[in-house]
Amino acid sequence: MQDSAIALARTDDDGVFPEPLTPLDEALVHALQIAPRASWSLLGQVLGVDPVTVARRWERLHSSGRAWVTAYPGIRLQQRIEVALVEIDCRSGEVESVAGALSALPQVVTVEHMAGGRDLLVTVFAPDLGGLSRLFLELITRLPGVVATRAQLTTRVFGEGSRWRLRVLTEAQQQQLAGAMPARRKPPYALPGKPDAADRALIRAVAADGRRTAAELAEETGLSPGTVRRRLGRLIGEHELVLRCEVARELTEWPVSATLWARVPADCLESTARGLLSLAEVRLCASVTGPNNLLFTVWLRSVADVQRLEAQLAERLPHLTLLDRAIALRQVKLMGRRLGRGGRAVGVVPLDVWALPPAP
Predict the structure, then answer these.
(1) What percent of the chain has pLDDT over 90?
(2) pLDDT in tens, 322-334
(3) CA 87 – CA 108 distance, rounded (Å)
(4) What number of CA atoms fall less than 13 Å from residue 309's CA on the CB side?
């Protein structure tokens, strides 16, 4: 199996625990969560810091794997692909090797080692149902150490990680950043077609580093800088591509990640999802196939917070019945980034939904 991962500057075995985030680091990450490709001059203006200092600070964060900007198919493009949440059971002693093999696949975007009910929980993007079947039958189930798999398809994503914020900046700073960004157009009613070769190359290049300049993206993709700007503006503006600034979870106030499964009456699903997304802890909320029709992921301050959250949900969302929950012992891969000690990014496997071999 070919590993297309791109190594980052720091490795996982350097024996150094990542430096804590400073107030300026947190403010910069929050700013890039709002405007991932904002210029250094704008960021400096908003943060009250010299643009050169801001650029230097980001380089330290990025090169140490403590923060990064990635990209992946947006909500409109996700309507043309299949997104599956897959639970995997492994033979004793082989969880790590299976997780490593899965992380090398460009269609496997997230891999988590879980406590409770399954060894691994992975998120998979596939071009269609046939492609998802081939991914399972030809790759995932054949991996040495895999004992069993169970998949749920997402039917609707109500909210995902790009909306999550550190909540450090003032309201005025947030508005200044948001106001400087190009307005996103209302998604066209018609679904997009399959991305052409140029769009696929651009998505892979931006996924590897969402802060690359148009000139750098042009050099990698073979497009002109002007074409890169136009295509990237269209993909983002029409909700076909999402840019997301991520931070090593262990360096935030929310070092614990948990995934919960629930059942909600169909006529209450949308209102319940809105209620969940109003909570600061919720990162992802999606309806899924199967008896547990709602799945959501939360970041928490401690494992004990799971019980506090469950009590809060019982009080605020009476239609939601929690049926299962699992704590992430370790995130091995997160939206294309391989993670090492302390949640740092230590490598990149550029996302490519359409890289599967053609059906026989």
Answers:
(1) 79
(2) 999 999 999 999 9
(3) 13
(4) 24
In the three-class reduction of DSSP (H, G, I as helix; E, B as strand; rest coil), residue 146 is classed as strand
Strands 321-334 and 294-300: unpaired
Angle between helices 171-180 and 40-47 (to 10 degrees): 160
pLDDT tens digits for range 309-352: 999 999 999 999 999 999 999 999 999 999 998 899 999 998 88
Q: Phi and psi (nearest 5°) for 333? A: -150, 140
Are the beta carbons of 273 and 285 closer than 8 angstroms? yes
Tokens 């005025």 locate to: 172
Identify whether the C-beta of residue 245 lies closer than 8 Å to the C-beta of residue 68: yes
For helices 23-34 and 171-180, angle between their N-to-C axes, nearest 10 degrees: 40
DSSP run (H or E) holding 147: strand 146-159
Give CA–CA dist 37/126, Å, rounded: 27
Question: How far from chain centre, in Å, is Cα 338?
Answer: 12
Instruction: Please say whether the beta carbons of 259 and 325 come within 8 A.
Output: yes
pTM: 0.90
Q: Strand 345-348 vs strand 6-7: parallel, antiparallel, or unpaired?
A: antiparallel
What pLDDT is recorded for position 9? 42
Pull the structure tokens for residue 194: 């399959």
Residues found in the chain: 360
